[in-house]
Every structure is written in C-alpha cells, then in structure tokens.
Design goal:
- It is a single chain.
- With 121 residues, the chain is an alpha+beta fold.
- Strands 4-5-1-2-3-6 form a six-stranded antiparallel sheet, with no helix packed on it.
- The longest helix is centred in the middle third of the chain and has 9 residues.
- It is globular.
- The two termini are 12 Å apart.
Length: 121
C-alpha cells in the first residue's frame, strides 16, 4: 500500500520546526494499485492518505519525550524512524504536494523497519 517517502530538498527547506512535545511526520506516497493489481482512483487514494497509520519522523520538538515520568525508558522514536500512529492523528498539511503531519509525542504506537506491507484494518 505504501510506496516511497522521499522528500525533495526544496521541501525540506520549508519544513516547520515542531514546537514543544510535537513530532513532524512525512507521509509515504500511497501506491497507484492495490495488492491485487486494481487501479486506485484519486478519491480512494486521498481517503487512504487521510486515514494513514504509517509515517517517517522528520523532526522532533525540543520537549518531546522529555517528561521522565511519562517516558521513563526514553524516547519512543527518533528522526529517521518509520512509526505507526492512530488513524486521522495530528495536524495535516502539504508542502509542494507532499503531505506531512504534526502529531503529539505520545501518539506514536510503534517503530517499524519498513513501512511496506502494512495496511490499516
């Protein structure tokens, strides 16, 4: 379901710095076809992007994971990780056509090595 997560240098220069305990996530591209080879129309791809559960950590706010009582084992993720989070989480926005989200640090549910093959149910 998920394809690439590349972000152009032009886009990287415009990325906001997440404030406080927020985490900036780059959303992966949704593939044009389903696993069965069926073409996905733009409306369906948009629905899948909106409900997406996987993203790439671009930046972490200065206060994220700093509360030792809430995060006694340290940060749940770091820049460069692929993470799973709840559907419809965070503030959505696009820069140069690429979708991003800003989520709370405690919204991260898991870290994954490779986002390909994951689907929401």
């Amino acid at each position: 379901m998920y394809a690439e997560t590349e972000v152009s240098e032009k886009t990287v220069k415009k990325l906001p710095i997440p404030s406080g305990y927020k985490v900036l996530i780059a959303m992966p591209q949704i593939e044009d076809t389903t696993e069965g080879g069926v073409f996905m129309p733009d409306e369906l791809k948009n629905s899948e992007e909106t409900a997406s559960i996987i993203g790439f950590v671009m930046k972490v706010g200065e206060s994220a994971y700093s509360d030792k009582s809430r995060f006694p084992d340290g940060p749940w993720c770091k820049e460069g990780d692929f993470v799973i989070f709840r559907s419809y989480s965070g503030t959505r926005f696009k820069i140069h056509g690429k979708e991003f989200r800003i989520i709370n640090d405690d919204t991260v549910e898991a870290v994954v090595d490779d986002p390909r093959g994951y689907t929401r149910v």
